[in-house]
Amino acid sequence: MLELRLVQGSLLKKVLEAVKDLVNDANFDCSSTGFSLQAMDSSHVALVSLLLRSEGFEHYRCDRNISMGMNLGNMSKMLKCAGNDDIITIKADDGSDTVTFMFESPTQDKIADFEMKLMDIDSEHLGIPDAEYHSIVRMPSGEFSRICKDLSSIGDTVVISVTKEGVKFSTAGDIGTANIVLRQNTTVDKPEDAIVIEMNEPVSLSFALRYMNSFTKATPLSEIVTISLSSELPVVVEYKVAEMGYIRYYLAPKIEEEEDTKP
Amino acid sequence: MAGKPAIAIASLDEKKRKYLPTKSQKSEKMTLTHTLNVLDEIESLVSDQLQVVSFKWLSRNFSLSSNTAKRLLKDFVEKHGKGLEVVYIVSGCLKNGPSNYSAKLASSTELPEVEKEFNGKYSVHIYSVQASVPMDPAAIWNAEFVQAEDLSRQPSATDNCLRGNRFCGISNSFVKRNIEGTTGNVTAPRTESVRTNAAPAQKGTVLSNQGKRFQHSNANVSHQAKNENNTAPAQNQSAKSSSDNERSLLVPPNKKNGLGEKSVSGTGGLLKNMWGRVPVKTEDESAKVEVKIHINDHSEVQKPSHDADNKGGSEDENQDVNFKRAPKHENRKRKVILDFSDEEYEDADVISLASPSSPKVNSRPDGKFNSEDSCPEKPDAGVSQEITFDEPEIREEDREKTAVDASTTLPMEKIQAIGSEAEVNPSKRRIIEAPSSPKRKKMLKSRIDDRGREVTEVVWEVTDTKVKKEEDTETSKKLNDGKNANGVNRAVAQKKSPAIGNAAATNAGGKAGSKKGGNIKDPKQGNIMSFFKKV
């Protein structure tokens, strides 16, 4: 028996929007600690990891660990039927092949039940080691989204270089090149507008902008995005989900021989 | 596939119909298994690879006569047809235009309606079998087109069914095939020029320009030919072909007609169509009032071409697009195309009234030929007679018009030329198609988007063949360059990947394609599995 009641239903809607472009089908894993998802995109280049901790739910009941395979497109369709202020409850019975989404309007005068069929998905669960990253950039998520969007109109690969001067996003395409440099800036009125660069070692990696752009679908979830870079490791793009968890995207870099010869 | 014994094919026909132990037991067994194999193959193609299997494709692929192929499809539909979409080809004389022999494609639901349009005797065959009727009608002929391209790209010494043309119902004892000499000469330089010109980035535009140029030259040639000898299309053909391409002699015109034309439609982007017409509206409002017959439509479209040759070229293409599409996809499609012009012409009543009707009139002759080419191997004396008959007619009309309106003379001649070219000498189109073929990628893409995931894969295959076969040298060069430059220049490296990746990204559309796309296109893209281990 599973019953998760999320008062801020819009969070779940946003989470789905943030994931469904990258992954078609995925297993949601429920345990006593929380509601999580890990999935790779079909080309096995990117990985998304979502965690919503049990504390974030108003009511969280999960008798035993359960894995529910869902088509995210279908799930998104159902969640779109929920109002932004609705309270969403996810329910599943043991051994059932369906999951129920219940939407309650804030005034409790409307209650909607949507039952969705589950599916069997062979998922490859990857162990993600905790790693020390060479550089960590914290910046406004909207800014990051804008940069990715702009650069993708010029090229299809972004080179993210972190030096002590700042972080540089550059691309090159048929029509020309683009470089966007952000400097550390912590003297702003609002903390969410700050650009914080923690650099232990300079790093420069190239990534496919296509994926970056799908990561930025999570922008509505959080004002701040954290980009952690290490050579030899996938980049991590992390958005916090309110106070209850995170959505992390891992993207394998494009391998370039020149990396070795870089200063 | 080209080498299957003709006897087996012939006997196959009989078996197919009766399953009687006519010939020796052995051969029957052979043909039966052959048939079964073919049916199985069709099933896997249609349901697994989501390919459109048309009788033409089938005929070429298995070296069957087209009639056998049609029969096979019929058998297939009877046995496995559930859940599949069937497109029929109905040919005969229309009620509203009894003098013209026309053919229409119809899906099974539309079939009764289409049949009503025909007068008296008409024939209904299965044109193609597919999992679903594609949104983009061009998808119907795509497989054929790719196949024809592959066949004609084979080394000139290779004998294949296109070159051999052994299933053509029309034979001419005076024409001898000379595969080694002429064809090879003609094809080789063409493809080369394509390669050299197709710089990675501008590929599309360059090619389309080229296509235009070819078209122009072709048009001129054919026009000349016409002047010399108005009534004899055969002469035209030979004149044209000798000037440009000997292959036309080797290949039955009707066989390649559709393909060639379509390829041109590939070159003419939709946007181009629309832009091409914009000036028409402003300029021609007065002119249209003067002349109202269908030719006028041409003149409208063509007028801007006085200003710029290029524009004229694109217009020609536009015309062709209309012709091309119309017959293949029935009235419905035709209307869609015309709608553009209608919208633009809204201001002038005369125009809006005239323009929709005229293309129909116009396209009918073309339609006829097209339709004929969709059942190319069927020897139909009536049809061929009609063809020869109609052509001069059109021309004379054109002439008259030219006389009436001096300003339209030039473009009209062009149309005339092109029209006739399309009709009589499609093989030339075939050549044009070679340079323009990379453009076709675009059409494929859109088609992909419309459909599901697996379709994307099919499209990928197409692109792959493109990349591999046509731009073989290019890509390898690119890669080499990349390696050399890589050490120093990041920009170079990045530039290259867009060139490959653009097509990829667009084709892939989304996640579906990315699996293959990501890996195939971008060898540099790392895999997340190499960083994290499975639990």
TrEMBL record, chain A:
Residues 127-254 form the Proliferating cell nuclear antigen PCNA C-terminal domain. The keyword DNA-binding applies. InterPro entries: DNA_clamp_sf, Pr_cel_nuc_antig, Pr_cel_nuc_antig_C, Pr_cel_nuc_antig_CS, Pr_cel_nuc_antig_N. SUPFAM superfamilies: DNA clamp. Homo- and heterotrimer. Interacts with POLH, ATXR5 and ATXR6. Its main location: nucleus. Pfam families: PCNA_C, PCNA_N. The keyword RNA-binding does not apply. This protein is an auxiliary protein of DNA polymerase delta and is involved in the control of eukaryotic DNA replication by increasing the polymerase's processivity during elongation of the leading strand. This protein is an auxiliary protein of DNA polymerase delta and is involved in the control of eukaryotic DNA replication by increasing the polymerase's processibility during elongation of the leading strand. One of its GO terms (biological process) is leading strand elongation. One of its GO terms (molecular function) is DNA binding. Transmembrane segments: none annotated. It comes from Capsella rubella. Belongs to the PCNA family. Keywords: DNA replication, DNA-binding, Nucleus. GO terms for cellular component: PCNA complex. Residues 1-125 form the Proliferating cell nuclear antigen PCNA N-terminal domain. This is DNA sliding clamp PCNA. It is found in: Nucleus. NCBIfam families: pcna (TIGR00590).
Automatic annotation (TrEMBL), chain B:
Gene3D superfamilies: DNA polymerase delta, p66 (Cdc27) subunit, wHTH domain. GO terms for cellular component: delta DNA polymerase complex. Residues 499-509 have a biased composition (Low complexity). Residues 181-272, 294-331, 350-451, 467-535 are annotated as: Disordered. It is found in: Nucleus. Signal peptide: none annotated. Its main location: nucleus. Keywords: DNA replication, Nucleus. Residues 294-314, 363-380, 467-481 have a biased composition (Basic and acidic residues). One of its GO terms (biological process) is nucleotide-excision repair, DNA gap filling. Pfam families: CDC27 (PF09507). GO terms for molecular function: DNA-directed DNA polymerase activity. Residues 181-196, 205-242 have a biased composition (Polar residues). It comes from the Eukaryota. This is DNA polymerase delta subunit 3. It comes from Capsella rubella.
